[in-house]
Amino acid sequence: MKKKTLLLLIKLTVSVGVLAYLFYSFRTSKDYAETIDQLIYQPKDWWLLAGAWFVIFVSILLTFIRWYWLVRALDLPFRLRDGLRLGFLGFLFNFVSLGSVGGDLFKAVFLAHEHPGRRAEAVSTIIIDRLIGLYGLLLLGSVVILSGQLPEGADIHKLGLVTLIGTGVITLLCAVMMWPGLLHGSLAEKLCGLPKVGPHVSNLLRAARTYRQRHGVLWASLAITMVVHVLNVAGFYFIARGMPGDAPTFASHMLIIPLAVLTSALPISLAGLGVFELAMQKLYVMVAPAMPLVMIPKLGLFVALLDRVIMLLIAAVGVFFYIGGRREVREVMHEVEEQEADVNS
Fold first, then answer.
1. Where are the domains of the chain?
2. pLDDT per residue over 151-160, tens digit each?
3. N or C, which terminus of the chain has less Cβ within 10 Å?
4. At what angle are helices 3-27 and 275-287 packed, to 10 degrees?
5. 3-state secondary structure at position 16
């Protein structure tokens, strides 16, 4: 069995196993019948649920625009509609490819396909885009913690401490990555020559060299990222408020959502499926006693599942872009598979 296939099966097993555990524990709980009655018969705020779809859609659009700015900063001929087209296609492949072709890799290869000889620059835009997104997520959680808006509770304080430490570590890493002595010279050569991780380090250093002189673009991208994450948190908050019963405050969601998203980013499942739902359920339970709240049982699970539905509806937009350029997409898909084969060999 190929390494790639084995890894895919492991991730699929984790996703299915965690989801099966979540649904089984809910089905066998004493509150199952009551919860189903609440979800079906108690009034829901459909305007808030519609608002959740809207703000999440806008947040995703802003991530495409952020990537477009990063590409344009490299003086690559790239239009906004190209950024939206590749953004929606990449977003679609994150859902329908079962992990075989990631959206980020697809966008990088597609961009390099349209601009032969600029593959390094194409890869660097994806790397820096992901790093800015991760840093913004941690930074948002840290701002909420330091503002003192979180409810009291030992578990919440522990999560806050982990978030602050993570933010500090990433800040230090970013500062080190932008240090000229690391970007060039013998140290950089040694790091790039390390087995297995060397190519990844090389791509990171290439991205840092590319953008070191374009700090204005980086600050603007970070500002967009903060707006993206706030909108994403608002989407989850609207979903929770739109359902029956109480819901954690917006400030609590500002910590819950970044932590759940960071947990789902661990490469142990398919697109975080199952892991994200488990993290949401646990974090909602941790917040509830500190408020206190009268939430429907498994509220975190249902909020996560509704978010999945919204994401799938948004990803469906990529189908129209796929239909409009099937031949070119297939060519790039072949290149993507070759790239992944080289990485896994």
1. 45-344
2. 666 666 777 7
3. N
4. 40
5. helix
